[in-house]
Amino acid sequence: MSSIKMFEKPLGMRDTFPITYEKTEEVRQIGREFLRARGFDFIQTPSLEYFDTVGKASAIYDASLFKLVDSQGNTLVLRPDMTTPIARVATSKLLKEKIPLRLAYFANVFRAQQTEGGRPAEFGQMGIEIIGDGSVFADAEVIMTVIHLIQAFGIDSFKITIGHAGVLNCILKDYTESMEQAVALRTLLVERNYVGFEQAVESFNLPKTKSDALLQFISEATNFVTIQDIEKYVRKNDALEYMQQLVELIDAANLSEYVALDFTLSSHMNYYTGMLFEVFAEGSGFALGNGGRYDGLLHHFGTKVGATGFGIRVDRLLEVIPSKPTTSESIGVIFEEEALFIKALEMANSFREEGKRVTLQSRKGLVDENAFAKHFDQILYVSQEDLVE
Amino acid sequence: MSHLTIAMPKGRIFEEAYQMLIEAGFNLPEEVEMSRKLMIEIPEEQIRFILAKPTDVPVYVEHGVADLGIAGKDTLLELRRNVHELLDLKISQCYIASAGLPNTTMNEIAPRIATKYPNIAMNYYKEIGEQVEIIELNGSIELAPMIGLADRIVDIVSTGRTLKENGLVEYEHITDVSSRLIANPVSYRMKSSRIQELVSRMKKIVI
């Protein structure tokens, strides 16, 4: 290991320069107004949590957690997601005051990078949680909200793919001969290894009807156009009915063009028991965000209520959002000597009242006047004549 | 029709995969002038090939600068990139195995394994309940047991000739390897119809 140089930052940590900062603030503002108008209340939770509470319950892999030790010897984590801290605060306090809760957040989360650069270890996340509502309408609200939110950012080309853990588990259970086989297939789907899935099905020596059904399922299941396409694979059950209802609601809201069904969608965390989805947009190589129903997490915190929500990564959102020119005009006011300071200040303030961005700068403090002037749309000099006027 | 960027490994796999695409009915020129080009544009099909080192293909695909790619299963297992594995092309088939000098057992205290695949080797020995020390090498892995650097090697085997010529024997078959068609998760969604069409056409060609 080479020694650390003065300019270095820990792996995956990034500085936010003015241009990115402004863009992020804009995203925050649009998101905040949008979500507040839909009845969501913003909250914030601490950056540090106990490993034993939030760290263990989080859906983020253990190896990605930043861990610290406090002065009492407890292991702490930098929050790796917002859903888990919100589940903690909701179950311990907020649910006693209001149910269902509609909460929103815009916060930085931390995930350690092991391998390489190219992705941040600290990034902004914006999202919502509806806690204490187990109905399909809450899930529909989450999906409608994510679609409209993305549209509010001016993004046109995006897709939400929805699946349901219950439907998938039913299929895997029905067409395999043992629990182990079903688990093995589910693991392959979490990794999105469709080739491995086919090979595993062939290696299980299942009755031909079962293996044929699974192979056909895997070749079709990522591209279902309508909910009817899945019906031949599943016997009638609650999960299927739930999805039928959800699709009807999305249709009724006129949003089906943004939605695709993918019943192979699966999460490595077993508390995602219901519908789950991923958000993709053109312009980023990585998924924009994800969401779903996580009743199991609330149970983990000791409260038996339903919960659903989504989170969007702000860093990826910034890649995708169409950039637009900055609107406010910037003016530099340069004054020569002390006597002119008051005059220059008055001038600057009157421009500021007009909503312009004004920098006041004495000439004495400048090293290279021309280089400085390049940063402004307009440069004004306060001279002796202004004083005479 | 959306534009597709396909990352291909240079060399023999490129040629075989390229032939498969032609057989699948894609309108590609019979001969491509490879020489030192890193990018090949096929305007008729709205396809662009980028030619990369085989182990880099999953990296291009994961970051989304290529929508699709062709990568060996060995590379995929080793790098564990977040990509979708769509189709087994069944080309350049071989397997990963452990090998060593004949009639030897591994050192009991600290068995040493030389390999280009540290993750695959580590995972394999973990699975069978053996704690080993990995020594990462980049080539001529067969040397390691011969000169006493390691007890076993974990490497790719196609015919077994290299092992035999160096007086080594195969001990354990670890996993089968062949070339796979992989996709970036976002492209898989946003260019879904094009990718699905390509997959179903290729699927018919795979023997």
Structure description:
Chain A: Residues 25-336 form the Aminoacyl-transfer RNA synthetases class-II family profile domain. Chain A: Pathway: Amino-acid biosynthesis; L-histidine biosynthesis; L-histidine from 5-phospho-alpha-D-ribose 1-diphosphate: step 1/9. Chain A: Belongs to the class-II aminoacyl-tRNA synthetase family. HisZ subfamily. Chain A: L-histidine binds at residues 81-83, 111, 125, 129, 271-272. The complex is a heterodimer of chains A (389) and B (207). With 389 residues, chain A is α/β, with parallel strands linked by helices. Chain A has 3 domains: 1-157 and 282-326, Bira Bifunctional Protein, Domain 2 (BirA Bifunctional Protein, domain 2), CATH 3.30.930.10; 165-255; 330-388, Rossmann fold (3-Layer(aba) Sandwich), CATH 3.40.50. Chain A contains 15 helices and 14 strands. Chain A has helices at residues 18-37, 51-57, 83-92, 136-152, 165-174, 179-190, 194-203, 208-220, 228-231, 238-252, 295-300, 314-320, 341-353, 369-373, 384-388; strands at residues 41-42, 48-50, 67-69, 75-78, 101-110, 122-131, 158-164, 259-261, 275-281, 289-293, 307-313, 330-335, 357-362, 378-382. In chain A, the strands form 3 sheets. In chain A, strands 1-5-6-11-10-9-7-8 form an 8-stranded mixed sheet, with helices on both faces. In chain A, a hairpin with a 5-residue loop joins strand 3 (67-69) and strand 4. The radius of gyration of chain A is 27 Å and the shape is elongated. Chain B is α/β, with parallel strands linked by helices. Chain B has 2 domains: 4-92 and 178-205, D-Maltodextrin-Binding Protein, domain 2 (3-Layer(aba) Sandwich); 94-176, Periplasmic binding protein-like II (D-Maltodextrin-Binding Protein, domain 2), CATH 3.40.190. Helix content of chain B is 31%, strand content 29%. Chain B is built from 8 helices and 11 strands. Chain B has helices spanning 12-23, 57-62, 73-79, 118-127, 143-146, 161-165, 185-190, 192-205; strands spanning 4-9, 39-42, 47-52, 68-72, 84-88, 94-100, 112-115, 133-136, 152-157, 169-177, 179-183. A 6-stranded mixed sheet of chain B has the order 2-3-1-4-11-5. In chain B, strands 8-7-9-6-10 form a 5-stranded mixed sheet. The longest helix of chain B is centred in the last third of the chain and has 14 residues, at 192-205. In chain B, 39% of the residues are buried. Classes of the chains: A alpha/beta (389), B alpha/beta (207). The A-B interface holds A 118, 157, 159, 161, 191-196, 198-199, 222-223, 260, 278, 280-282, 284-287 and B 62-65, 82-88, 180, 184-190, 192, 196.
